[in-house]
Amino acid sequence: MKSSGLISVIRSRRLGGHESDPTTYLEVLRTTAEGSGSAAWVLQVFTIHEWFMSYVGSQLQEDVYGVNPDAIVVDSVPPSALPPPLTADSPSADGGAT
Fold first, then answer.
1. 93/96 Cα distance (integer angstroms)
2. DSSP states of the chain as a string?
3. pTM of this structure
C-alpha cells in the first residue's frame, strides 16, 4: 500500500499526497475491497488520518512529515455522538424488555 502510493491518496498535495477527491478515494477503497475486504479496511484506517492531517496546524504537519515525508499517521478518535437514553418504551434487540 505504501509503495503503490495508496496511503497518500487523500493526503494534501502540499504535504506530498495526491489530494484525490472523495469520489476517487471511495473508488480506490471499493476496488481494493474487491480483492480483499481486510486490505480495504486497513487502507481506510491509514488513509482517513492522512485527510485529518490536512486540517491540523502547520507545526504538527511539519513535526510529522518534516521528519519523515513517508510517515503513516494513525490515531484514535472517540465517538462524538451518544445514543438516545433508554426509556421504558425503547425497543430491545430481542423484542423483550430493555
1. 8
2. -TTTTGGGSSS-GGGTS----HHHHHHHHHHHHHH-HHHHHHHHHHHHHHHHHTTS-HHHHIIIIIT-TT------------PPPP-TT---TTSS--
3. 0.68
> Per the structure block, which three cell numbers stand in for 5?
502510493
Residue 98's pLDDT is what? 47
What the chain holds in terms of domains, given with CATH numbers, is 6-66 (1.10.540.10)
A 10 A CB-CB count for 25 gives: 20
- What pLDDT digit, counting tens, does each position of 44-80 carry? 988 888 888 888 899 999 999 898 888 888 877 676 7
pLDDT in tens, 3-20: 888 888 988 888 888 899
* CA distance linking residue 62 with residue 79, whole number of Å: 27
